[in-house]
């Protein structure tokens, strides 16, 4: 059973498909994935970051419920690096496991860039798109904007 040790990689989307039979594993154009939200198609590039800053708007209202859940998700996924206040003084930064984590007050960010960074990551921060739902990402964006405004005061 050598295939059990060295598996044969197949690219089912190439010209030959799988076993010389074409396979269309890509979603049909115009379809919306489960959850009802379109795919995020802004690329992980400097131009993509600028596009998210200029064009991406938070579709959720900044209600108490959204801010409360944004805070809960931020506490789980973000405080260890970014700190409770968003000042870049989370446990991993203070113990010097990661250096150079910025304060939100020092960054020209908005909800679009926050969402973009959650989706793609930036510098040492990896993507958190698989850990958070569409709605949770936007709730965190609201909460980070609130933290930033508190720091800038």
How would you describe this structure to a colleague?
It holds the Pfam family Cytochrome_CBB3. One of its GO terms (molecular function) is electron transfer activity. Residues 65-148 form the Cytochrome c domain. Keywords: Heme, Iron, Metal-binding. It is globular and about 65 Å long. The protein has 153 residues and is mostly helical. The chain has 6 helices and no strands. It has one domain (42-152): Cytochrome Bc1 Complex, Chain D, domain 2, CATH 1.10.760. The mean pLDDT is 88.
Shape, principal axes of CA atoms: globular
Oligomer: single chain
Enter the CATH topology name: Cytochrome Bc1 Complex, Chain D, domain 2
**Terminal Cα span:** 66 Å
CATH superfamily: Cytochrome c-like domain
H-E string: HHHHHH
Q: Helices and strands: which structural class?
A: mainly alpha
Q: Any idea how many domains?
A: 1
User: Mean pLDDT, as a whole number?
Assistant: 88
Helix content: 25-40%
**Rg, alpha carbons:** 20 Å
Strand tally, please?
Answer: 0
Contiguous uncertain segments of 5+ residues: none
Instruction: Look at the structure and give the CATH class.
Output: Mainly Alpha
Report the total helices.
Answer: 6
CATH architecture field: Orthogonal Bundle
Beta-strand percentage? under 5%
Largest sheet report: none
């Amino acid at each position: 059973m050598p295939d059990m040790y060295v598996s044969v990689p197949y690219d089912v989307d190439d010209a030959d498909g799988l076993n010389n039979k074409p396979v269309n594993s890509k979603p049909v154009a115009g379809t919306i994935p489960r959850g009802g939200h379109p795919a995020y198609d802004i690329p992980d590039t400097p131009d993509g970051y600028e596009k998210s800053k200029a064009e991406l708007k938070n579709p959720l209202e900044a209600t108490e419920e959204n801010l409360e859940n944004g805070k809960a998700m931020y506490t789980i996924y973000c405080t260890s690096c970014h700190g409770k206040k968003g000042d870049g003084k989370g446990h991993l930064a203070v113990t010097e496991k990661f250096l150079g984590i910025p304060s939100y007050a020092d960054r020209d960010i908005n909800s679009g860039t926050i969402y973009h960074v959650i989706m793609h990551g930036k510098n040492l921060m990896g993507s958190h798109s698989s850990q958070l739902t569409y709605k949770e990402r936007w709730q965190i964006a609201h909460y980070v904007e609130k933290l930033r405004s508190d720091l800038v005061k």
